[in-house]
Amino acid sequence: MAPFALALILTSAPIPGQTAKHPAQTKSDIQGNPSRQQKPSVPPLVVNSAASQVYQNGANRPSGDDKPHAIRITSLPPKDWTDWIAWLTGIVLTGIGGAGVYFAIRTLRAIEDQAKLMVRQADLVQASFDQWVELTNWRIGQPQNNKLRIMVDLINTSNFPVAIISGHISVVNYGGLTTSYVGDEAFLPPNRPTVIDFWVRLSDSQQAGESLSLPVTGQISHWHRITKGKIVQPFIGRLDCGPWAVDKKWHATYVPLAHMNPERTEGDAEGEQKAN
To answer: What is the C-alpha to C-alpha distance for residues 91 and 216, in angstroms, rounded to an integer?
Structure first.
């Protein structure tokens, strides 16, 4: 009996704000409205009217101070002693760098000048060992049997021996070209002449004449003492021959057109090439 009484009390308890209905009326309402019998009741949506009212009043909207805005700088901050130290340090380092570049340039120029001086000294040392050979003391014999004997001294004018590689002397004469060859790998001591002796052919008119002129060409090659390079000394000239009025004997004078020694002038050479 007690449980039934408790269920009856819970069922008949009225909702606050509504008038209590009689059980018979509730049953008749359910039977009279089938939709209420089939669909369950939906709980009402609760809206927080206080929060909505606050947002509408603009309490939680971002204010103007929170929006991004530009900053304009009208003046620099004042400098303290650390800024001045950094500024002076930069000036000192710049001066040191400039001085380093200046002295580096001076050092490079000094090295370049020293290199040029060393090259000049090397050239002078090499020039002191330059060796030249010369053909001097040209002389001839009396023409006989349409032949003319020519003799010339090959001399080493330096202070060191010269190793001759090869050489030849060619004289244009009647009937062709006469060539005399210098011995290969010949050795010439300093200032000691080596005689080159050869014959050339003459025509009857040349032998009977009072003078004749014979073109001379050739070259002498030898090794340089320092560089071990090959030195070639070409020469071109003219051999004037004829009897002298004093002794009625034939003499020769060599006139160089291209001297074999580049350190000699043609005038000096011509004065020394006269034969006795």
So the answer is: 78
Percent of the chain with pLDDT over 70: 65
d(CA 175, CA 226): 43
Q: What is the DSSP string of 129-180?
A: T---EEEEEEEE---BTTEEEEEEEEEE-SSS-EEEEEEEEEEEETTEEEEE
Do 102 and 151 share a domain, yes or no? no
Domain range for 104 is: 86-128
- CA-to-CA dists, residue 24 to 28, 29, 40, 94, 127, angstroms: 6, 9, 20, 109, 149
Bridge partners for 134 per DSSP: 155
d(CA 14, CA 156): 153
The confidence score (pLDDT) of residue 101 equals 92
Same domain for 176 and 252, yes or no, is: yes
Chain-centre distance of CA 180, in angstroms? 51
Q: What is the chain's length?
A: 276
Q: What is the pTM of this model?
A: 0.52
pLDDT in tens, 210-263: 788 899 999 999 888 777 888 899 999 999 988 887 888 888 999 998 878 766
For residue 37, which amino acid is it? Q
DSSP codes joined into one string, 70-116: -----SPPPP-HHHHHHHHHHHHHHHHHHHHHHHHHHHHHHHHHHHH
Domain end point (choices 105, 128, 151): 128
Domain boundary among 128, 158, 193: 128
What would the two tokens of residue 261 be?
């020694």
